[in-house]
Amino acid sequence: MTATAVPGSGAGSLPAELGPAARAALDYLVDLTAPPPAVRDGRVDHMLRTALSVHDRTVTIPGQRRAMDEVAAAVRTACAHLAATELEDAYLALRAAVDRLPRD
Fold first, then answer.
1. Alpha carbons 20 and 55: distance in angstroms, whole number
2. Which residue, among 45, 77, 71, 48, has the nearest Cα to 59 in the 3D structure?
3. Contact 7, 30 (CB under 8 A)
4. How does pLDDT run across 31-86, given as a tens digit for each residue?
5. Contact 25, 78 (CB under 8 A)
6. Which residues, at least 6 apart from 104, have a Cβ–Cβ distance to it below 8 Å?
7. How confident is the model at residue 4 (pLDDT cuts 50, 70, 90)?
């Protein structure tokens, strides 16, 4: 699944899978000096929390589960930083999440 939303446009759908959601959230945080409305109004946080919820219900393969749990932990950290409007820390947590994604 790929993100179809363009940061700042308000158009398209947001991804519900953890990897694509983390990558899309990073795109939204590319400019920390002027975050787009989706960051300020909580849509990015909601997208990430929805992806976490889907992850918790769907990942069942043991090896994949372990790797994705590390990604999920980093995304949860990013959500906490987004809630506190600590955007640089949220970006760094999302960068860690994306770096931990399994390679295809």
1. 12
2. 71
3. yes
4. 999 999 999 999 999 999 999 988 777 766 666 677 788 999 999 999 999 999 99
5. yes
6. none
7. very low
